[in-house]
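Deliverable D2.4 — example input (structure tokens):
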């Protein structure tokens, strides 16, 4: 699939005419995005289209377009120039998050441009059992794919954590990013075989391979139905070891979905959802109200782990001026930014503390690399709790996502109540590979033995001091990784909401003793691919011998 080239006239028919054309198009685009938001599958998808609506209201963008209108340019030319210049600026800042914003802006820009030009954005005519191959898909195009016809899609660009990848997971569509550009030259109608689990696109599949994958797909569908039916059952291994399976969430809606799918609590509340895609900071009252509503939904028997603001060089806030950074992933991120601007942290602590008593409250600090950062943050938390008249502090823990924190876990452990391992950042910092780099997507793999060894080091140090360890990174949401994480001693798996039933079902098929054996084995391997293969063989043997749990 390729987008047709649009013809844009530079000169307009008068400022008032062109201004009216742009206003109409912006209004129509806002209404269309609201429809997509209302039809969204889950809040992650809804948030993407809400962010698109925010872009349509961006004052800087509108200012640029209106300035060009006063110079006699057409609405189409003015809007296209403004969005292209802003997207180019985002891309030039070397930030994965801003590159994602540039992709969103390109999507929104095309939507408005087509409306100005009167070009109907018709749905693609796709055959049954289609695999879509494109340079890149926009979030709108992905959300518009007919899942009754499309089996999956493949793109040359993009990364595993892009908005398009998030939408693909929400839609249950297998997808593959970062393939060579030669894939675009494939002829329409050619039979290919997509195995997204293995990251493979087969260009000359034989009939036996096609039939085998079709049978596997059918088994997956039946298995998923059974997992959802049994989602309320606890995550207890066959030999009686309980692993808590909680949810990664960014809204009250997601908390409610998680509980409906058997989630045992919230292992990661991404508090930045309150701060991003807006022009001013959320009020203390708005923050406190949101945290309290989420805590009430969970109740006093479940954990609520709130991560403090995880923004900075790679996730800038419009209302927190920051200097441009050469390496934003190595700059003022997470706790570093909050300690440099302590008022921001104090305000957030006060708002989070308002939910104390409604759930088992835990506060988690991101990007901690020094013990002094933990001590300073705890001091601020204690001061805010005292000011509110609280006698009992919530549990305080840190994310293990910087190698220095993992290597010094024995030093941190006496001073924390828990650790939660963010495998996405831990992987990119350990392997020195950008996790969103299309060419490195297959190598920036959390199954690498070096990452698993750091997890093992963290768990050993925590358990020696009687502290629990969770994994809230994407690795916890991979069924293939569950045996090794259990075997390494991880106590809690905080996962993507739709995958809660799958991860709980996987736990119930395992034996702790066997998991410990396979964990020791894979720590001695050389590369992620070897670890994955060893776990695939183990998984196949386990699933074949595991009894089906009936109600």
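Example output (designed residues):
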């Amino acid at each position: 699939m390729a987008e047709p080239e649009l013809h844009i006239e530079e000169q307009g028919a008068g400022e008032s005419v062109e201004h009216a054309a742009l206003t109409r198009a912006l209004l129509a685009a806002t209404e269309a995005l609201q429809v997509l938001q209302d039809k969204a599958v889950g809040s992650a998808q809804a948030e993407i289209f809400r962010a698109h609506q925010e872009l349509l209201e961006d004052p800087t963008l509108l200012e640029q377009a209106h300035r060009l209108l006063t110079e006699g340019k057409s609405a189409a030319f003015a809007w296209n120039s403004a969005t292209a210049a802003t997207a180019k600026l985002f891309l030039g800042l070397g930030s994965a998050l801003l590159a994602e914003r540039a992709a969103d802006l390109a999507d929104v820009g095309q939507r408005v441009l087509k409306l100005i030009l009167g070009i109907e954005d018709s749905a693609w005519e796709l055959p049954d059992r289609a695999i879509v191959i494109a340079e890149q898909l926009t979030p709108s195009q992905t959300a518009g794919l007919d899942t009754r016809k499309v089996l999956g899609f493949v793109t040359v660009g993009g990364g595993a954590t892009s908005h398009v990848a998030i939408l693909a997971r929400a839609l249950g569509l297998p997808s593959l990013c970062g393939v060579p550009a030669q894939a675009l030259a494939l002829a329409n109608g050619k039979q290919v075989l997509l195995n997204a689990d293995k990251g493979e696109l087969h260009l000359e599949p034989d009939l036996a391979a096609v039939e085998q994958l079709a049978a596997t797909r059918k088994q997956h569908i039946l298995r998923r139905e059974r997992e959802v039916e049994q989602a309320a059952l606890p995550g207890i291994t066959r030999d009686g070891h309980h692993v808590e399976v909680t949810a990664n969430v960014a809204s009250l809606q997601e908390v409610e979905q998680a509980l409906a799918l058997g989630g045992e609590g919230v292992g990661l509340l991404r508090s930045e959802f309150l701060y991003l895609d807006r022009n001013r900071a959320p009020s203390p009252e708005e923050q406190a109200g949101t945290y309290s509503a989420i805590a009430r939904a969970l109740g006093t028997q479940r954990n609520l782990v709130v991560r403090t603001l995880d923004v900075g060089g790679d996730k800038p806030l419009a209302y927190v001026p920051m200097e441009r950074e050469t390496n934003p992933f190595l700059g003022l991120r997470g706790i570093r930014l909050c300690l440099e601007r302590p008022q921001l942290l104090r305000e957030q602590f006060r708002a989070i503390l308002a939910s104390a008593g409604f759930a088992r409250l835990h506060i988690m600090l991101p990007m901690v690399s020094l013990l002094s950062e933990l001590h300073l943050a705890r001091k601020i938390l204690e001061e805010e709790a005292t000011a509110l008249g609280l006698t009992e502090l919530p549990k305080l823990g840190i994310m293990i996502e910087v190698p220095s924190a993992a290597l010094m876990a024995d030093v941190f452990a006496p001073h924390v109540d828990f650790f939660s391992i963010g495998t996405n950042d831990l992987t990119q910092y350990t392997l020195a590979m950008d996790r969103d780099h299309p060419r490195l997507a297959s190598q920036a793999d959390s199954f690498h033995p070096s990452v698993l060894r750091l997890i093992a080091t963290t768990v050993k140090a925590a358990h020696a001091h009687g502290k629990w360890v969770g994994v809230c990174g994407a690795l916890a949401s991979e069924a293939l990784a569950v045996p090794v994480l259990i075997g390494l001693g991880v106590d809690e798996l905080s996962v993507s909401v739709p995958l809660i039933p799958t991860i709980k079902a996987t736990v119930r098929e395992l034996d702790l003793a066997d998991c410990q054996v396979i964990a020791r084995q894979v720590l001695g391997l050389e590369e992620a691919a070897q670890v994955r293969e060893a776990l695939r063989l183990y998984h196949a043997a386990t699933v074949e011998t595991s009894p089906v749990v009936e109600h």
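The longest helix spans residues 15-38.
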